[in-house]
Amino acid sequence: MAFGSRPAGTGKHRGSSRLSKKTAGYAGIAAIATTGVVGSLAAPAFAADNHSSSAPENGLGAVVVAEDLAGDIQDQAESQQRAAEHAAAKAQAEADAKQKAAEAKRLAEAKAKAEREAAERAAREEERKRLNTFVSPLDDSYVSTQYKAGGGMWSSGSHTGIDFHAASGTSVQAVGFGTVVEAGWGGAYGNNVVIKHNDGTFTQYGHLSSLNVSVGQQVTPGQQIGLSGSTGNSSGPHLHFEARTGSQYGSDIDPIAYLRSHGVSL
């Protein structure tokens, strides 16, 4: 046997290479970053050599790096969570504000509509009242001859209207809204005016000394249509007033009842 020779399989055990130790260290760091289990760093690659060379390659360095990485990940996750919660709260606040604005707009529109409809109803009612307003044909007067009074002065044998006491030249007014259908000489009625009213009835004003309206003219309650007199078949100045269901002679109705039915007190 030659000097210096050794039996096969004997001799000093060779240490792990630097590459193997580094690879094992990186594997331990990855394991901590992924699983958070520190114990996994006790890998055989580190146990194989009790003479590790430097601090960054041992388990303690891996733990520090892994803890820092995990803390950064946690901070980032919490920051993202806070940002998401803030964005959600902002979106909810904006949605609530839009809903409140829409509701306020709806209520305002409903209120405006109700007020407009109320105003329209009031205007229609006012117009209805205005159109149905009636007045006496003479102010401060009284009936001197009643409806259907008998006597030879009337061709029908009775009075077809009523006579209002009036001095010559007294203002005679339309009793209600309507259209003049006759204005001029009317035979026994003298100068006369006939008005058709909105309800389809007619009124006649006779023995006028002068006229202030013409056929086709629209008149309103209280509007002067002429002056009282004594023209035609008359015994003296007065106003002959008739109410009729038609424009022609013979369709007369009780003038006092007619005026009272339209709210005129006599």
From TrEMBL:
Task: Please report the stretch or stretches of sequence annotated as the M23ase beta-sheet core domain.
Answer: 158-248
The portions of this protein that span the membrane are none
InterPro entries registered for this protein in UniProt? Cell_wall_metabolism_enzyme (IPR050570), Dup_hybrid_motif (IPR011055), M23ase_b-sheet_dom (IPR016047)
Cited CDD domains: M23_peptidase
Bias kind Basic residues: ranges: 11-20
In residue numbers, the region (Disordered) covers 1-20, 106-128
Q: Which residues form a coiled coil?
A: none
Which PANTHER family does the entry link to?
MUREIN HYDROLASE ACTIVATOR ENVC (PTHR21666:SF270), PEPTIDASE-RELATED (PTHR21666)
| Name recorded for this polypeptide | M23 family metallopeptidase
Organism, by scientific name, is Streptomyces yangpuensis
